[in-house]
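### Sample
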Amino acid sequence: MAGTKLEILALLMNGVLELYGRVSDMIIRNASNVYPSVIEVPITKHPKVKDVRVVSVPDPASVEEICACIILKEGQTTDPEEMKTYCVKIGMVPIELPGYFIFLDEFPVTTTMQKVDRKKLRLIAMEKLGLPKES
């Protein structure tokens, strides 16, 4: 069906449905499927992080590279190396470890639903990283 969005869900042993995200948001990295929420949830627990969204950016070596787009809490500062160290420390597996971390003041949102616009966010990430626009 045109316009249909497919969601990835898991039924947990305790009967709870856990939402992983949309199929269209899935990142393919080194022939593995990586769901953004699996990366976003643990990064959001960092004490300096207010919000995070993960998008893919082009990478010739791994098809898509993971970019964590982070909004920090007011008055907080950090850098990509600190975030990478945190991700390793909490046990994030290498296939899920973002290759890039960028810091933003806000996320672009859709005009209709006021949800984060991942397509626009991806373009912002590519621009900040100096990556060429895809044709």
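The longest helix spans residues 118-128. This sample (Medium-chain acyl-CoA ligase ACSF2, mitochondrial-like) is used throughout the tutorial notebook.
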